[in-house]
UniProtKB/TrEMBL annotation:
<feature type="transmembrane region" description="Helical">
    <location>
        <begin position="270"/>
        <end position="296"/>
    </location>
</feature>
<feature type="transmembrane region" description="Helical">
    <location>
        <begin position="206"/>
        <end position="226"/>
    </location>
</feature>
<dbReference type="GO" id="GO:0019706">
    <property type="term" value="F:protein-cysteine S-palmitoyltransferase activity"/>
</dbReference>
<keyword id="KW-0808">Transferase</keyword>
<dbReference type="GO" id="GO:0005783">
    <property type="term" value="C:endoplasmic reticulum"/>
</dbReference>
<feature type="transmembrane region" description="Helical">
    <location>
        <begin position="79"/>
        <end position="98"/>
    </location>
</feature>
<feature type="transmembrane region" description="Helical">
    <location>
        <begin position="118"/>
        <end position="139"/>
    </location>
</feature>
<comment type="similarity">
    <text>Belongs to the DHHC palmitoyltransferase family.</text>
</comment>
<feature type="domain" description="Palmitoyltransferase DHHC">
    <location>
        <begin position="161"/>
        <end position="304"/>
    </location>
</feature>
<dbReference type="GO" id="GO:0006612">
    <property type="term" value="P:protein targeting to membrane"/>
</dbReference>
<protein>
    <recommendedName>
        <fullName>Palmitoyltransferase</fullName>
        <ecNumber>2.3.1.225</ecNumber>
    </recommendedName>
</protein>
<dbReference type="InterPro" id="IPR039859">
    <property type="entry name" value="PFA4/ZDH16/20/ERF2-like"/>
</dbReference>
<dbReference type="InterPro" id="IPR001594">
    <property type="entry name" value="Palmitoyltrfase_DHHC"/>
</dbReference>
<dbReference type="GO" id="GO:0016020">
    <property type="term" value="C:membrane"/>
</dbReference>
<keyword id="KW-0472">Membrane</keyword>
<keyword id="KW-0812">Transmembrane</keyword>
<feature type="transmembrane region" description="Helical">
    <location>
        <begin position="12"/>
        <end position="32"/>
    </location>
</feature>
Amino acid sequence: MLSGHKPEAMNFVVAFGSYVGLVLVLILLYFMRDLPLFKTGLLGEIRNTLIKVSDLLVPELCWKLLEGINWRLFKQRTMFFQVVYMFLLFLGYFEFVVEVLPFLHYFYEQENHINVPIFNFLTLVTLLVISSISNPGIITEKNVRGHVKYWGTDGLVYWENTQCATCKLPKPARSKHCSLCGHCVFKFDHHCIWTNSCLGGNNYRYFILFLLNNLFFFTYGTWMVMRALGGIIEHMHLWDVKYIDDNDQPQPMNYSILIHHLFMKFPRMVFLAASGIFLDIAVGIFTLFHIMLAFTNQTTNERHRRGFIESVIKRLANTNKNDTHERKTIGNNGLAEIDKNEPIDSVKDNVRLRTKGIKGTEYSNKDNQTSSKRQGKQLVYHHVEELLKKHSSNEILQRLSNNPYDLGFFKNIWSVFFPLTVPGKNSDIY
Ligand SMILES: [Zn+2]
Ligand SMILES: [Zn+2]
């Protein structure tokens, strides 16, 4: 018979869950704060008010500290996240060996629970190292001509005869300059903080395998913890136990009481299972997104670029409809229009302006990054304006929805795992 601490413990579990949920939602909102959705309408008003209020409430020193951390962690190459990943991996594995393995051996003694985790652990470390140190597909003077010919421009998302403002080399379609690493990468996907490197045409395959291995690791680990807990439930006949409710009446066992009881008796194991489920969902969604990109021959960078171009087309087409004179003004200064629509930039940029100059070269470096991004945006504006002179916005949007790099399912997969050797494509690059 279980009795006693139920209400307090349940309150603790609910409070702990709510607290973790709230922190996760706040982190998610912080990272999504620059989405167009949060910049207009009621949500935009709320966002801007929050920024103004936080400006008043949070001391200057905290902003500088936050900005410093943000700069160190996200605007420069750092091994911080690799160390965090390795630490969590070791911790998870250690907990598995110390907490879960003895129960698995006891309840399922004829099974082998050693080989799969060790093999999986080693493949994870190996894939992290390979993804981190392999060449993502850096564009050099030697290979740039081949890359320019390889994917070809579509005249909408990528244009002919463009040049990287930093590398001073021609800019092949689907490539991008990474301001953290300081080079252009072919078929650029994104700069990954976990691998501390760019992910591009050459190392994206390792990253996909790394993601799939992570997913397997979390799924296998969670499943094994569940089985250990299942063994405990069966061994202790917990489903046959009655508990005393608030009115001192014996009640049959239910899931809520069972989970609470396990949490009190085996907190580390239940925490491991809960973390495993959370990571499985988070990494699962991220992996599915990248598998979808691989199947359709797209990159994260391309999707962002298409989204931005789409918003520019709609904005210019709308302005065109409302006022032809205003449209001409925008033509002269596309950036003014961007700024007009984004009166308060992110908290990060506000802080940047305030702390500008304090750290000398570091921040002037950052200003360069921002200014080249603005130049890129301006270029898109001018290009879309030119297109709108010849075609209707619907026509351009229609074209934008087609992915010209889609070679069909098998060739798309091939191009991920054997880049530059896609059947029927020019592979004479290196
Ligand atoms: Zn470059
Ligand atoms: Zn990079």
